Amino acid sequence: MKHKLELIYFKMRALAEAPRLLFHYTNIEYEDVMSWDYYGKDWSEVKPNIPFKQLPMLMVDRKYQICQSMAIMTFIENLAGINITDPILNAKANAIMQSSQELFMPLNPTVNFATGDKFIKKKHDMIPFLMSRFEDLEKAIIENDKKFFILDEPRACDFVTFHHLDLSKMLDSSIIKKFPRLEKFLEDMMSIENIKNYLNKRPELIDVSIDPKLIIDGVPHPTGVKKT
Ligand SMILES: N[C@@H](CCC(=O)N[C@@H](CS)C(=O)NCC(=O)O)C(=O)O
Predict the structure, then answer these.
(1) Which of 90, 91, 134, 158 is the most exposed place for a label (fewest CB within 10 A)?
(2) CATH at residue 171
(3) Are residues 136 and 66 part of one domain?
(4) pLDDT tens per residue across span 102-134
(5) What is the span of the domain harbouring residue 159?
(6) What ligand 1 atom has the least distance to the C-alpha of 101?
(7) Helix axes 156-171, 116-144, angle to 10 degrees
(8) pTM for the whole thing?
(9) How far apart are CA 157 and CA 150, in angstroms?
């Protein structure tokens, strides 16, 4: 059964990115909609009525509200019929997905919003955590001995990991270079045709650490939760 799928979010490259990548990989049609366009109101008015008061949220058939980006990922995998059914592999995949998702804070807000000295301090403070988590991820992908983290084809955990590793390059491009197996993983993900196409056409994130903006339909917009 085909569903109407609307992914509601803001102007930032953060938690909607893995769902977008997975939608493109699985060729599932969906629409990206900004919160203010969907609701016709400012986020401050919308927030109290959203199930967990945050976005992204996937609206299914204008009826079901799926919050929490990891729940959205699992839902897309199930819709596409690519969910990992082996309980051990499924648990391993979830551990990878959760461990990568923990990179969200403070990596994503820093890249999308921090500027000047605040950016420098936040970056400096988070580097030990990033190094340690990247080390764990590199070890996991080497031990599993497949092309991607669990299988020879990517699954939800790979798209979540891809997003955070890819974003880390905008914080400091030298970190990922210390992890050759993770760099190879990024290359393998980027060479998947649908992913390559999506990455080439997605809004570009510019002026990180100075005055971050997303270029949407050719127009630079400051990152954030407000209509511009
Ligand atoms: N655990 C949630 C976190 C969602 C989250 O932090 N959303 C942020 C944007 S990335 C948000 O809604 N910010 C606006 C607000 O909290 O009012 C998830 O994975 O979806």
Answers:
(1) 91
(2) 1.20.1050.10
(3) no
(4) 999 999 999 999 999 999 999 999 999 999 999
(5) 87-192
(6) 19
(7) 140
(8) 0.98
(9) 8
Residues 20 and 37 placed together within one structural domain of the fold: yes
Whether the predicted pLDDT of 97 surpasses 90: yes
Cβ of 223 closer than 6 Å to ligand 1, yes or no, is: no
The residue nearest atom 20 of ligand 1, judged by CA position, is: 68
Best mutation site among 54, 67, 163 for ligand 1, i.e. most ligand atoms within 8 A of its Cβ? 54
Give distance in angstroms: CA of 97 to centre of ligand 1.
Answer: 17
Same domain, 97 and 76: no
Atom 6 of ligand 1, residue of closest alpha carbon: 54
Give the distance (Å) from ligand 1 centre to CA of residue 57.
9
Residue 46 has pLDDT above 80, yes or no: yes
**What DSSP letter does each residue of 126-182 carry, written as one string?**
HHHHHHHHHHHHHHHHHHHTSSSSSSSS--HHHHHHHHHHHHHHHH-HHHHTT-HHH
How many structural domains comprise the chain? 2
